[in-house]
Amino acid sequence: MKQKKKTSVAYWSPPQSTRRYLQLRPEKVRMSAITACLRIKTTLTSGETCILSYATPEYDNTFLFEYHSEGTIGVYVNGERKIISVPGYQIFDGVWHHWCFTWKRRGGKWALYVDGEKKASGSGFVRYKTMPADGVWLVGQDQDNVGGGFQAEQSFLGHLSSVNVWDHIDVNINAAANCDDTIGGNVIAWNNVTVVNHGVATYDTDLCSDSREWPDQPECDATCAGGNQSRTRECLPVGSVCTGSTVEKRGPCCGFRCQYWTDWMDKDDPSKDGDWEVDETPCAAAAFLSEPIIAECRVVQTQQPWDASGYQYFLPCSVYGVVCRNAENEVNWREGDPPVCPDLEIRYLCRYL
């Protein structure tokens, strides 16, 4: 059996916030053409939602990928906007989708691809203007100025992966959409670009497993992207969130194994060191070997999400835990003073291995 590849996935949990995003730091290049691809899975239907943005001093929206609550996709190039309708396509259906947009300065030729298929195209869009090189790439926030000017109602919620950008349009988009994450962009390559993470949860998963390979532990909730043959097996273990049987199609398949949420855990109380909610084996209570893929954190007293509480965090909420230290939240705090940090609790979404 061949070794399965794992891909890094970023996850934005509710509520929408201006404080969570990824900054990508590729080499800076001027672009007279672009191919920008990514995978998303979301159910958010709030106004205009930004997924990927590139801002420069010349144009706040030098490049921007967004979608709208009415089901359209929006793209900016050098400050000019194109709204694209894709009939029959549900953006926020909670299923993984692969998007690509291509544009070329000469003639202003453009095209939108969804799940490897060209859904719309045209010409005359932003002709003869080169994208400047002195900008900032962000995932999950719309930049109203370079590196800032965020609005919470435009921020992304959901799962995102495989952001790849090229400075040309000669890309095998069908191969990239069909689970070949070895195809990295020459401007941004998701697997090796430098990422500065501002409070976004991440996990590694086999996004595009070969459905002909059956692991020892049966999988559940498999959603396949091709093939017309299928086979059924029972979901194990008993008591997990998955019940009954699972139908798996042959062909490229994108799905997750059985998952479950832990109880809320509060293992530390605020003290002179702050509040440290860190657990090296948060999923160890399960009857079967499992690992955390997402974490949610909140303030015990108010049930307020951690990133809406107004505190500074030494370790933002992630599968590694959450840590608030007094010293970062009160400049004049000294040992012996009452704790500044609130009492925090955390729970994990675990999946069986």
TrEMBL record:
- Coiled-coil spans are none
Q: Which residues form the Pentraxin (PTX) domain?
A: 7-209
Q: Which UniProt keywords apply?
A: Calcium, Disulfide bond, Glycoprotein, Metal-binding, Secreted, Signal
Record-linked SMART domains: PTX
Write down the SUPFAM superfamilies for this protein, in alphabetical order: Concanavalin A-like lectins/glucanases
Tell me the Gene3D superfamilies matching this sequence: 2.60.120.200
Compartments annotated for it: namely: Secreted
Q: Which InterPro entries match?
A: ConA-like_dom_sf, Neuronal_Pentraxin_Related, PTX_dom, TSP1_rpt, WxxW_domain
Q: Name one GO molecular function term.
A: metal ion binding
Which cellular component appears as one GO term in the record? extracellular region
Q: Which cofactor does it need?
A: Ca(2+)
Protein name according to UniProt: Neuronal pentraxin-2-like
Q: Which organism is it from?
A: Lingula anatina
Taxonomic classification: Eukaryota, Metazoa, Spiralia, Lophotrochozoa, Brachiopoda
